[in-house]
Amino acid sequence: MTWGCRWALESAGMAMLMFVGLGGAPGASSAWAQTQSPQGLSAIASVVQSAIDRGEVPGAVVLIVHRDTVVYRRAFGARSLRPEKNDLTVDAIFDLASLTKPIATATAVMLLVERGQLRLEDPVAKYWPAFAAQGKDKITIDHLLLHTSGLTADNPLADYQWGKAAALQRIAELKLEAPVGNRFRYSDVGFVVLGELVERQAKMPLERFVAENLFQPLKMTATGYLPDGERRSRCVPTTRIGDRWLIGEVHDPRARALGGVAGHAGLFGSADDLARFARMLLRQGELDGVRLLQADTVRRFLEPIAVPGGKRARGWDVDTAFSSPRGDRFAPGESFGHTGFTGTSLWIAPKHQCAWILLTSRVHPEGKGNATRLRRELANAVAQWLGVDERMPPSPP
Description:
Blueprint: H1 3-12, H2 29-36, H3 43-53, E1 59-66, E2 69-80, E3 86-87, E4 94-95, H4 100-114, H5 141-146, H6 164-172, H7 188-202, H8 206-215, E5 224-225, H9 229-233, E6 240-241, E7 244-245, H10 253-257, E8 267-269, H11 271-282, E9 286-287, E10 290-291, H12 295-302, E11 305-307, E12 310-313, E13 316-319, E14 336-339, E15 345-349, E16 354-360, H13 372-386
């Protein structure tokens, strides 16, 4: 049964609940969570605090959506440790890192597919002829979305030092590392290419297209590339470059060399905004009376597809080595999500009408943190609260 069918069956059996008001001033997260969170989610505080105590993250914002309602929303620990220590608040804006891939780039691609401006089965070279060089003529948009193009994970940082036009020329000249479609290898390069395709077909910069066509309709007011003004003041720092802390400036060096806007990284956003995005997907493309994507487009966007060694969806992880945010209790292949290098993650379980968001800056202050264990333990806490344990029983001896 497809996820779309499951959603329809589940939705028919329940009335969708109204989205709770987030209430209170920014930073009032602890009181909100203590008074509004359902019993059983109290384990989350222990899970997050343990990660902070181990020095794996300086702080974290956790938000959980269940049945179209935010049921948990809380900030823990520090926004920054250096140059001075400041407390984290729930309205903080994080460098979302590779969450850029599904939330900005892949969603933009699917919107252009829906509008007839791209086709998933088309070769990339149809829209960018120079890309066909070195045997890349058979790479399709689907191959890029599924990371099965045969492209390298990352080309040398030196390829980006002369600006965007030169960097794209170097990418067009890349050789394949594997035959097209024969290998799954997570590739930032592939999503740089997708970002370029969006710009070519939309005939506008990527940051403007996603702002006008995705984030503004969804009222994701804190989300976008190149935060400035009030949004920049809410950004959580990552690492330091020389004497300058990166605050509202993308951590990924290739995205930074491309001016802060790229298909693979560069997006900033808040937990509240990611909750709106997750709700839109769980509602099959619609939120608050605004339809962002048609239901059939959402189905194509999220359908699990077998790739060598696992399953992916178009822009999303489903069941691979990157699936730590699913935890141990949710069945493989029945949920989807993504991670970001800075410590961010979003995971969505349509079967259970649930999504969980973890935003951290695990690269602060010295780039030595690790959010993998926290992602897994958060998912397990959510599963325990839902009463979910879909692990396969051990085989009889």
